[in-house]
Design brief:
Layout: H1 4-28, H2 32-49, H3 93-101, H4 108-125, H5 129-134, H6 136-162, H7 166-177, H8 181-191, H9 195-207, H10 209-223, H11 231-260, H12 267-288, H13 293-311, H14 314-347, H15 355-382, H16 391-399, H17 405-415, H18 422-443, H19 447-453, H20 461-489, H21 497-501, H22 521-545, H23 551-569, H24 580-586, H25 594-606, H26 610-636, H27 638-643, H28 647-674, H29 676-704, H30 710-718, H31 738-741, H32 753-762, E1 763-768, E2 773-775, E3 783-789, E4 792-795, E5 801-804, E6 809-810, H33 812-817, E7 824-827, E8 831-837, H34 838-847, H35 849-866
Antiparallel strand pairs: 1-8, 2-7, 3-6, 3-8, 4-5, 4-7
Length: about 850
């Protein structure tokens, strides 16, 4: 039966069944995926018992898998069992419902080209790329070398026990050695496993499919004598397939995200393009380029979750995530039920012949995985190749390495692979099927118990304390609100006392002061700063969604805030009140970026000033956005964060928070003072954009309240435009021509225009950053400087500090006296200097004696003051 009505009806029945089984799974304390698979087996048994099979269709069939998927290069072979069934419109509706399920033929193509891209993309979309990078060493080791080692151990052990050909046994070992992303991701979502453990196990399962496919390809070629064994060729194939998939995923994701950017405020368009991304990447990689489609989909998800999140407004990205969560639920539900339905046909009548082999395979493969996890991971930790992994995590990594749809898909490939005899193909299919269900039934159902035994289901001591303080604070807030509600109703408070009593703290007090005494003050401050920085990060995303910051500024803001979060988390705390490490970490945000430092270096070497102007403009926008975010935080979220901390920690938290505000204010002021015209233009633009945003929100409220219709709303939005060009980003113009800048130096006022042009040719424009050291005591005197714009600080040997502003000069003493420098000189802000080399200084005073005498006079005055 493969009529359209039957397929639609069958899918509808399965999805409805998947939803209805959710509460059953909770009641039975079974993972939802395991229950789905078991129900699928039950459905297959009912269909068989009632003799309802239609034609040759079955739920799982050897599919018309594109052989290029496994690299053999042969022409596709049509899937068996697709003959027309002739309809079957008779019988009661329950019988038609069961009969419709036989039209849902799950081939290897269906699993690998429809279900797998969707599931791995959804999982990688939610992975934290920054945390994934930290665990990449362990993940890649397990995904590559772990699969190879496990396949070898399992294959040789199986050959010794079963007597089957060694190549066949190694093929089985390769197929069952790769953990399955479909099964693992579904299980760990149900369990709510610790974040790092989830990243380790999910990351491995997402990356190791390329290894399994390449290794299976090699052994399939050997089985059919279509390839000569070659370790070099196999290694090259692996890196081409694996690396090629990564490259394709990066290119397609970047291209798709670029297409999304103009539509970033249109949810339907952006969500639709996100649905296209994994399938386009998978098909181009797998079918056209013959590299890993799985890796292409994984990298596409990672790129979308990291880079895409920075260009798509948070509320619209939330819709993307919601859509993909829904798709993942559908895909997971369908694949596990359909695989369960197809198990009887996969096992066949000779299941008993291979039962002992299957048991041995399960035991040996599990032992092999334990050897890899418990043996090699500590070795890699010892050589500092991976971060330490606890024994409890290692135990869960061994027992949580489930197999599922990908392993079954590869078994289906073997069943229909040209040149492989029936006995060999059936041997592989039976062992893989039994192995997959053994991991689902034995491991998936017991892993939650193992996690509890190992204490992984518990909150850390600090998180428990934070939970308790949050509970006390939340209950007190709710009680205050309820008391206001009762008072507004004019009712007697005693009437509602039983309801209000529910929001009293468990110990009967309304204070959380006694909770968390075992946690040091510095640790509480550290936690508070992390909460504040995380909230600030969300404010930046919302500002981008409102159009208040550009994409370039958002990327810089997120890079800085994430660096600050990491610095605070890893700050060294030596004792209870030690917050100096946290103070230093908070200074990271306002430091000069590497991009700005490179632009300064380029200007000094080449005289090119446009990269410097862009970098300074970006810094100004970043500091302006940070000021706005901190101002909003002070009004909206800071009080709640401080309320969660003990009083002593709250005070220090406020102190460090104010210190951070001061740093950002100082950085912003330095830019504002140096480039006031640009700052004023930026302020005007910000106000204009805020006005447009508020106007849009006003129109939206009118529409939402039913006061205007869609047509009027659209006309109002279309009338907005760019009023007076105020929303355009102004461009910073930096003066760098020495002839123009010497007009800021009074010393040159008496020089003729011709003389100024000659002097300007001897001068070099130098831009310096706030805090940058220009000279150091003891250095040879190789030049003097004129301050065209800015302020410098001179630290004299006697400890006195002298400030010089625009129009002044310094560094002349070392040239006149032909002696080393006697003072350290720093720039207090962004300063523009005119540098005159020692050689040109001599020429200058020879050609302009009066100018030379003015410089000597100032030098004598300074020496007299410092004597």
């Amino acid at each position: 039966m493969n009529e359209i009505w039957a397929i639609v009806f069958g899918l509808s029945v399965l999805l409805a069944l998947a939803v209805l089984l959710q509460p059953v799974a909770k009641t039975l304390r079974l993972p939802h995926t395991v229950l789905l698979a078991l129900v699928g087996v039950g459905i297959a048994w009912i269909i068989s018992s009632l003799g309802l099979e239609a034609g040759h269709g079955s739920a799982v069939e050897p599919g018309a898998l594109d052989p290029n998927l496994v690299g053999d290069g042969h022409e596709p072979v049509p899937a068996a069992g697709h003959e027309e069934s002739g309809g079957h419109h008779g019988g009661p509706i329950w019988q038609q419902a069961l009969l419709s399920l036989t039209s849902l033929n799950v081939t290897a193509d269906v699993i690998l080209f429809i279900f797998l891209p969707a599931l791995v993309f959804e999982s990688s979309l939610s992975l934290d790329l920054r945390k994934l990078r930290k665990e990449l060493g362990a993940i890649l080791f397990l995904a590559v070398f772990g699969v190879l080692i496990s396949a070898t151990i399992a294959g040789f052990s199986l050959q010794q026990f079963s007597g089957a050909a060694i190549v066949t046994c190694l093929l089985v070992g390769a197929i069952v050695s790769a953990t399955d992303p479909v099964a693992v991701i579904a299980l760990f979502k149900d369990l709510g496993a610790p974040k790092r453990l989830t990243i380790l196990v999910e990351g491995e399962s997402l990356f190791n499919d390329a290894t399994a496919i390449v290794v299976a390809t090699i052994f399939l070629g050997l089985l059919t004598a279509s390839a000569e064994p070659s370790l070099t060729a196999a290694t090259m194939d692996f890196f081409i397939v694996f690396g090629g998939g990564i490259l394709v995923g990066m290119i397609i994701a970047r291209l798709m995200i670029a297409i999304m950017e103009p539509f970033r405020n249109h949810a339907i368009s952006v969500v639709s393009l996100s649905l296209v991304l994994p399938f386009v990447a998978f098909v181009i990689a797998e079918h056209f380029l013959h590299v890993s489609g799985v890796m292409a989909a994984v990298v596409g998800g990672l790129a979308m979750g990291s880079h895409g999140r920075k260009i798509i407004p948070p509320q619209i990205f939330a819709e993307i995530e919601h859509s993909w969560h829904q798709i993942a639920f559908w895909a997971t539900a369908l694949i596990f039920i359909l695989v369960g339905i197809g198990v009887p046909s996969m096992l066949g009548e000779s299941f008993g012949e291979y039962f002992d082999d299957a048991v041995l395979l399960f035991v040996v493969a599990t032992i092999a995985r334990a050897i890899i996890i418990f043996g090699f991971i500590p070795l890699l930790v010892r050589f500092k190749l991976v971060a330490p992994v606890s024994r409890a995590f290692q135990a869960i990594m061994v027992w949580g390495g489930l197999r599922g749809a990908v392993s079954l898909a590869l078994a289906l490939v073997v069943l229909d692979y040209p040149g492989i005899d029936y006995d060999t193909a059936h041997f592989v299919a039976v062992l893989v099927t039994v192995f997959v269900f053994a991991t689902l039934i034995l491991q998936a159902t017991t892993i939650s118990t193992l996690m509890k035994i190992l204490g992984l289901g518990k909150l850390s001591a600090f998180d428990e304390t934070l939970r308790d303080r949050s509970l006390v604070w939340a209950k007190a807030s709710v009680r205050d609100e309820l008391e206001h509600v009762v008072a507004a109703q004019g009712s007697e408070p005693a009437t509602f006392e039983d309801i209000l009593a529910q929001y009293e703290p468990a110990d009967g007090s309304s204070s959380s002061a006694g909770i968390g005494a075992q946690t040091s003050t510095a640790e509480w401050v550290q936690a508070g700063l992390n909460l504040a920085l995380g909230q600030e990060r969300q404010f930046y995303l919302e500002a981008y969604g409102d159009g208040a910051v550009s994409g370039a500024r958002l990327r810089e803001l997120l890079a800085r805030i994430e660096e600050s979060i990491e610095a605070v988390r890893s700050a060294t705390i030596n004792d209870d009140n030690d917050v100096e490490g946290l103070r230093e970490a908070l200074g990271r945000f306002s430091q000069h970026s590497s991009n700005l430092k490179r632009a300064i270096a380029v200007q000094r070497r080449t005289g090119l000033v446009s990269p410097l102007a862009d970098a300074i403009s970006l810094r100004f926008g970043v500091m302006s956005a940070a000021r706005s975010a901190l101002s909003r935080q002070a009004d909206e979220g800071l009080g709640e964060i401080a309320a969660l901390l003990p009083p002593s920690a709250s005070e220090k938290f406020r102190e460090l928070y104010d210190y951070r505000v001061e740093l950002i204010e100082r950085a912003h002021k330095a830019l504002w003072l140096q480039y006031p015209e640009f700052a004023a233009a930026i302020d005007r633009r910000n106000v204009a954009r805020t006005g447009q945003r508020l106007e849009v929100q006003a129109y939206d409220r009118l529409k939402d309240n039913g006061m205007i219709g869609q047509e009027v709303h659209g006309a109002l939005l279309a009338s907005l435009g760019d009023r007076a060009g105020l929303t355009k980003l102004p461009r910073l113009v930096i003066k760098y021509d020495p002839l123009e800048l010497i007009g800021n130096v009074p010393l040159f006022e008496g020089i003729t225009a011709s003389g100024r042009r000659k002097i300007a040719k001897q001068l070099t424009t130098v831009f310096v950053l706030p805090g940058e050291q220009i000279m150091a005591a003891g250095d040879p005197g190789d030049a003097m400087y004129f301050i065209a714009d800015g302020v410098v600080e001179i630290d004299l040997p006697d400890g006195n500090i002298v400030e010089l502003g625009t129009g002044k000069f310094f560094g002349e003493l070392a040239l006149i006296n032909d002696a080393p420098r006697v003072a350290d000189v720093y720039s207090e802000g962004f300063s523009t200097l005119l540098k005159l080399s020692k050689k040109d200084f001599q020429r200058l005073i020879e050609r302009n004696p009066s100018l030379g005498e003015a410089i000597r006079e100032e030098a004598r005055r300074r020496q007299a003051q410092n004597a």
